[in-house]
């Protein structure tokens, strides 16, 4: 058994080292080597900084118990390796959607000059929400919660921009900072977080509104691909500004936003946008349903609010300078991770959107000392090799639970809590002819008994971005 387990530590290309840059197979991962210090037996409520008895929510409790995050300071967390994997997968999906609508990826500094924020009026308007600091020369900065000023200044610096180069759709995925007065609910309301923010520049209001619809449709596509039950609602423009705004919300009891929805889908709004208490749909007259939601995306039509301040212009067909019409579009990367766990999971078991789960597969070999130990471990190892050959994209998406001192039942229970979509067990039937593996399809809520060929056929449907 130990010799077989050691194979999971080694690259599949044995006897020679792969050429530099050669793809090769992913290194096999043992659960005992994964830096995921979980406490799956934890009971009670765990608060925003990990102390018992404080305000919490399902996703925060599950992420802390599963070793996905670790508190650093109020509102700030270490993201541990499985969470980073999930985040990287989510970013790949976001990149696909943003680049499909012509997005070009940039990366702007987190430090933003106070001068830019004074010019837009937001240095004072944002108040204590801004993290402010000075350099050794006394020059003021803030840690960017958003980058409208910075990106507009960037585009304005290129004064020879032609109408032929528009629309311009620039986006980034970076850390953001907001000095929340009461950070809570783990990654749902934190002081340091990851966000995807896109800024668009168009030649006219009509073109900018077309871009707005295009990006909103891309957001809908993203949430559909993730299998998340979202709703798009009318929203206030707040500190960002502009004349039109929508939020993308995941309905959830723990949500901080109050929403009203038409049961027939004709109308949806954040209540902060309504004048007075609106109880019926303005389109069809049906009684509105009230619910709460977690904001995971926000879009704004800005017009020339920022381009007029920085003089972000382009050269029109008549060879005259003209202000660009702008929009901005945010997606909370880490908030989507936490919100998806919040709405998909049970109180005890994590469920991820299949597309962004940290690891698709968990292999469970026989218990140490069992009669299936040696043959079962060898057959499981052979299954992994065959799977890696036929479905190489899954080779690096697998974990072997090598805690063979524990029963299969105990490891299955833990795998269920950790949310692997597929758990493959070398149980009592593994030594039959042909070998039969016990496969738990967690998201479908079913247990299958499959030969090697059946396992491979099932896993061919697994999604990895």
Walk me through the structure:
The strands form five sheets. Strands 4, 8, 9, 10, 11, 12, 13, 14 and 17 form a nine-stranded mixed sheet that branches. Helix content is 28%, strand content 25%. It is elongated. The protein is an alpha+beta fold and 465 residues long. It is built from twelve helices and 22 strands.
Strand content: 15-25%
Mean pLDDT: 91
> What is the C-alpha radius of gyration, as a whole number of Å?
25 Å
Number of strands: 22
- Report how far apart the termini are: 33 Å
- The stretches of 5 or more residues where confidence is low (pLDDT under 50) are 10-25, 44-48
Largest sheet at a glance?
9 strands, mixed
Could you say which overall geometry the principal axes of the C-alpha atoms support? elongated
Helix fraction bin: 25-40%
* Number of helices in the DSSP assignment: 12
Assign the structural class, choosing from mainly alpha, mainly beta, alpha/beta, alpha+beta, or little secondary structure.
Answer: alpha+beta
